[in-house]
Amino acid sequence: MNGVSIFTTDLAKYSSLAILGTACFVCQEIPDELMRCQKCKRMSYCSAACRAEDFESHEMICSLLQLAPTSTSSSKRREIFEREDPAHDLELDISLLFTAQDKTFREMMVERGNRVYTRAHRDLLLYEPRCAICLRSADDMRTLYDPEYNSLLHCPDCRAAFACSEDHRAQYRDEHSQQVENGEGLTECEMNKRAYEYSLEIVARGWTPMVTLWFPMRRRTEYSPLPSSWQEWFADPSNLSPPDSSQILNKIRTRQLSIPMSILHGMELFDKADADLSSLLTRTELEIVVLGAMEYELLFDGSACFEELLHNLPSVRRLILRFVGPNVRFGMIGPDGTLKEALDWDLCTLCKEKGVELKTSTHPDLYHEYVKERIAQAATGDGPAFEWPDIAVLFNSGLSLNYYKAEWSPTLDMLAESGVPTLCSSFLERESVEDESCLESHRCNIVIKRHKNPWRSEVLMKMVLTRKQFFTYNGFIQGFRGLKERG
Ligand SMILES: [Zn+2]
Ligand SMILES: [Zn+2]
Ligand SMILES: [Zn+2]
Ligand SMILES: [Zn+2]
Ligand SMILES: [Zn+2]
């Protein structure tokens, strides 16, 4: 339960350590001596000046932070922690504690006339420091054992790993300095330091959707096959804008750009499997269905990244994007409380000049249900003739997880039977292996073998409310087309 992924503080101005309370909440600096708020004991300041600057906005959050833990009774929390279960068995319990706090926090905020519950407020709860061994927070220590308890001990190096006691710190030390799964050879401590460095870069530049989330403003005159890596891609000056883009910023941007680049990569591989490389060069219309979209495909103006498809495929005059899945609701609810039917996104001037057409639509249904409905509507004349998309993409779908299996199963069957080229990505290698066997059990004809995606996001993320799990958006990729012959 350590560390903070840098991207949860979207649109906010706080570094990972400021959220954890081990850097100044105002200037993000790491002081020799922390001045921790003695009431909530959660946020810290480097100086009286920084504390004064935050005084007004802190006042309200401070009292809510003090009240939030009361959303779960002490006896309930005592019961969780005194089972003495290993930390990873407590993850579900901890996430339920968080859910209760989150709800209380939100309600209290509205009650007090402040309707602005931001991602940063939520992060303060979500990333409440917890002991890496027993998962107790400082607040648990105070309310359950010792009213005088002040704050957890933190790793002096990364300041993002915590322990409730010297004893637990010693128990965790080895694990903290070992390489983590998917950590690209880095230890947890090093990963935490990287997260702080990345988040400082965002704080320093300010979060601007079209800069932090970004696509290059240029159109290619003809399709040129993708290079083999991000490194090569960023080495091409036409892919760099603004020219002062730093290496860290480039890495941060791969999280967003991973979406169109993975689609292009998949389309290249599908064409190669068909021995038909011409379709990328000549197609004038492209319809993509994004299944299970819920995050950067939709939020924070991130959908503009799809523009990179148009910029790479100059022959395409009409791009149709359909976002289908129950999670489409997140981030797509308009100010009047109804679901937006299309994305608020205007094509860039280069595309407009060229007369390119873009059509987006959102459908909060499971894909197989969506298709059945469209077919039925077409049959009764209530809708246009149904056409299958040119490609379907399932980003980080977790399709093999027990939790989602029932939902994905009929969709996979339908996609395989219809012969729609379908691209699937996953966070971890382990998941891509499970996805592969799931696709095989549905007799999906795998034409793109499971592999490490060269267009994966280069931002390693830490899963919240679980320990020691770093992951990468679109880390692994595979694809199928049609049904495999029996026998
Ligand atoms: Zn400061
Ligand atoms: Zn406070
Ligand atoms: Zn502990
Ligand atoms: Zn550390
Ligand atoms: Zn454009």
Structural account:
This is MYND-type domain-containing protein. InterPro entries: Mss51-like_C, Znf_MYND. One of its GO terms (molecular function) is zinc ion binding. Residues 24-62 form the MYND-type domain. This protein has 487 residues and is α/β, with parallel strands linked by helices. It has two domains: 6-196, no CATH class; 208-483. Helices cover 40% and strands 12% of the residues. The protein is built from 17 helices and 13 strands. A hairpin with a 7-residue loop joins strand 11 and strand 12 (470-471). The longest helix has 27 residues, at 247-273. It starts with 15 loop residues before the first helix and ends with a strand. Mean pLDDT is 85; it is low at 1-10. The chain binds zinc ion (5 copies).
| Largest sheet, spatial ordering of strands | 7-6-5-8-9-13-10
Shape: globular
Q: Helix content range of the residues, please? A: 40-55%
Spans of at least 5 consecutive residues whose pLDDT stays below 50 are: 1-10
Structural class by secondary-structure content: alpha/beta
Bound molecules: zinc ion
Strand content: 5-15%
Q: pLDDT average, as an integer?
A: 85
Number of strand elements: 13
| Rg calculated over all Cα atoms | 24 Å
Number of domains: 2
The helix count comes to 17
Distance between the termini: 48 Å
H-E string:
HEEHHHHHEEHHHHHHEHEHEHEHEHEEEE
Describe the sheet with the most strands: 7 strands, mixed
InterPro entries: Mss51-like_C, Znf_MYND
Organism: Schizopora paradoxa
Domain MYND-type: 24-62
Keywords: Metal-binding, Zinc, Zinc-finger
Describe the secondary-structure layout.
Blueprint: H1 16-20, E1 35-36, E2 44-45, H2 48-67, H3 74-81, H4 91-111, H5 119-126, H6 138-144, E3 153-154, E4 162-163, H7 166-176, H8 188-205, H9 209-212, H10 230-235, H11 247-273, H12 278-282, E5 285-291, H13 307-312, E6 318-324, H14 349-354, E7 357-363, H15 367-379, E8 391-394, H16 402-418, E9 422-426, H17 429-441, E10 444-452, E11 461-462, E12 470-471, E13 476-483
Parallel strand pairs: 5-6, 5-8, 6-7, 8-9
Antiparallel strand pairs: 1-2, 3-4, 9-13, 10-13, 11-12
Bound molecules: zinc ion (5 copies).
One zinc ion is lined by residues 37, 39-40, 43, 58, 62.
